[in-house]
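Quick one:
INPUT:
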């Protein structure tokens, strides 16, 4: 596990960002989400507003963190691919890092929403567990789909549009899910999420590998 994490962490600028990734980023969102629950008079309002705050910040945070690591990873001329070409295990590091990034995202978002849900139960006597599971799956779907776009197309305008619509849809889905959360939707979302997570990573790895070798051969050719 230590070796896997090391391969993941090399894609971040320096070790200080790891404190943001693992500590500061989730802690701030948990704090803000719990404040809504603490000072709200009804569970619907507190949980709804607290969750909207959490999912919007989680959505934005994931895109910002990705901009430091895997942004444009599958684009043709990319600094990240230049970096990994220096190692014989470059593509292996990319594959491992993408998987570890997905695992970290799943655990971070689950932890943040679980803590917010537990605090809501403590404040209101009800936790709306199914609601939190469903909104968690929706959030992951939006983030995974959006990251696939910004990792494939290194374009600032496209990134801003994806970030805007992803965050807006995540917030907008909270009231509906709060009122109509059900197990059938959870199962369907879970299946779709697994397909998207596997499919997008396979595609990114395929494109990254093509660019990794194509650009390398071109540079050798020009050098010769």
């Amino acid at each position: 596990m230590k070796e896997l994490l090391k391969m993941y962490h090399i894609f971040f600028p320096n070790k200080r960002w790891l404190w943001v990734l693992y500590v500061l980023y989730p802690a701030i969102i948990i704090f803000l989400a719990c404040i809504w629950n603490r000072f709200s008079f009804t569970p619907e309002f507190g949980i709804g507003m607290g969750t909207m705050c959490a999912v919007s910040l989680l959505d934005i945070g994931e895109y910002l963190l990705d901009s430091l690591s895997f942004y444009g990873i599958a684009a043709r001329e990319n600094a990240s691919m230049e970096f990994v070409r220096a190692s014989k295990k470059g593509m292996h590091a990319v594959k491992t890092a993408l998987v570890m990034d997905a695992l970290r995202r799943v655990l971070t978002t689950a932890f943040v929403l679980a803590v917010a849900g537990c605090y809501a139960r403590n404040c209101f006597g009800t936790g709306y567990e199914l609601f939190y599971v469903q909104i968690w799956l929706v959030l992951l779907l939006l983030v995974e789909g959006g990251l696939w776009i910004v990792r494939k197309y290194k374009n600032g305008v496209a990134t801003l549009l994806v970030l805007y619509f992803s965050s807006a849809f995540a917030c907008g889905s909270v009231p509906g899910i709060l009122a109509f959360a059900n197990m059938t939707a959870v199962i369907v979302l879970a299946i779709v999420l697994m397909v998207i997570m596997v499919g997008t990573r396979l595609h990114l790895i395929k494109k990254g590998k093509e660019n990794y070798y194509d650009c390398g051969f071109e540079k050798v050719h020009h050098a010769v």
